UniProtKB/TrEMBL annotation:
It catalyses: L-homoserine + succinyl-CoA = O-succinyl-L-homoserine + CoA. It is an enzyme of class 2 (transferase). Transfers a succinyl group from succinyl-CoA to L-homoserine, forming succinyl-L-homoserine. Pfam families: Abhydrolase_1. This is Homoserine O-succinyltransferase.
Length: 384
């Protein structure tokens, strides 16, 4: 058996929690029952005070760290930050990571069966919001016996969930880390999401979301959606240094097949994604992004919206992230200060664009590790 890295959480097995209590949703509909798939790393202490919740981004899932088998080529999506001695030190913290409702990695979503019809939910699955996810996550915390999280942490769409946690359940969040996120999407971001959705919905194999009944998948549309999204996740510098204008051959072919290396990369990313992600889930997730705006019920006053929050915040942005730029993080920081909240802010100089929140940037790791050490110190969490 291959030897796993010493700072890995090792082999992990996903777990499933079933909930029979109906969940009322912001869209006005109700899920009669549902399942959440999750993983845990580390050990919950006797006081149940060392739990950390990880909230995932648009295409994320429950597998944040470790390996499912010794033959896995890659660990979980945030393995660089979760494990013994890492920023989220599993010698001190008990980490919970789940796949959100509406997801396509085991939690109840469009791929699940609708108990009312016996058929796959497909496009009939209810529209999700960040608030819905937070309420379902709170029920999972109840199931695990966790009344208060030492920290709730997330990047991108995950950061929006962290913010919502601090508003819906302030007494259950001791600390919050909002990374590469925004208090609401800009018109440009909503536009990118709409282009992606239209790419999927206009695919002839989409069949109004009932592609499973036609024994097909809208791969072309989902591929295009991912290609558009992936461009926005990278910076111009990252694309330039990685690909430049490099050709796959020595000269132009004067055609529409792949000629530039960047074209090859995007097509590969799109093809891979279209084979592992569900199109209806992609539509749901992007709509949840669009809908998120906690300041809206307060006349656009973000400081007023943040009034219920009671925990210290860490807000992190990245210099070349043009999807959720540093200016949007500063907007959140300014509102937190106006609301009288404790907040630390770091803008990390990185060439990697929005994707930087997933990577082991040295200064990012130092800031993040410092925050988590303070969390452990304030809560008197000892290494086990």
């Amino acid at each position: 058996m291959p030897e796993l890295p010493r700072d890995s959480v090792g082999l992990v097995t996903p777990q499933t929690a079933h909930f029979d209590a109906p969940l009322e949703l912001a869209c006005g509909r109700t899920l009669p029952s549902y399942e959440l798939v999750y993983e845990t790393y580390g050990e919950l202490n006797a006081e149940r005070s060392n739990a950390v919740l990880i909230c995932h981004a648009l295409s994320g899932h429950h597998h944040a760290a470790g390996y499912h088998s010794p033959d896995d080529r890659k660990p979980g999506w945030w393995d660089a930050h979760i494990g013994p001695g890492k920023s989220i030190d599993t010698e001190r913290f008990f980490v919970v990571s789940l796949n959100n409702l509406g997801g396509c990695h085991g939690s109840t979503g469009p791929l699940s069966h609708n108990p009312a019809t016996g058929r796959q939910w497909g496009p009939d699955f209810p529209m999700m919001t960040v608030t819905d996810w937070v309420h379902s996550q709170a029920r999972l915390a109840d199931r695990l016996g966790i009344q208060r999280f030492a920290a709730v942490i997330g990047g991108s769409l995950g950061g929006m969930q962290v913010l919502q946690w601090s508003l819906n359940y302030p007494e259950r969040v001791a600390n919050a880390a909002v990374i590469a996120a925004t208090p609401k999407l800009s018109a440009q971001n909503i536009a990118f999401n709409e282009v992606a959705r239209q790419a999927i919905r206009s695919d002839p194999d989409f069949h109004d979301g009932r592609y499973a009944e036609h024994d097909t998948l809208p791969r072309r549309g989902l591929k295009l959606a991912r290609m558009v999204g992936h461009i926005t996740y990278l910076s111009e510098d990252a694309m330039g240094s990685k690909f430049g204008r490099d050709l796959r051959s020595d000269d132009f072919n004067f055609g529409y097949d792949v000629e530039f290396q960047v074209e090859s990369y995007l097509r590969y990313q799109g093809d891979t994604f279209s084979n592992r992600f569900d199109a209806n889930t992609y539509l749901l997730m992007t709509k949840a992004l669009d809908y998120f705006d906690p300041a809206a019920p307060h006349g656009g006053d973000l400081a007023a919206a943040l009034a219920p929050a009671s925990c210290p915040f860490l807000v992190v942005s990245f210099s070349t992230d043009w999807r959720f730029p540093p200016s949007r993080s500063r907007e959140l920081v300014d509102a937190l200060i106006r609301a009288g909240k404790a907040v630390s802010f770091a803008n990390i100089d990185s060439p990697h664009g929005h994707d930087a929140f997933l990577l082991p940037e040295p200064r990012y790791q130092a800031v993040f590790a410092g925050f988590m050490k303070r969390v452990a110190r304030d809560l008197n969490l000892e290494a086990h």
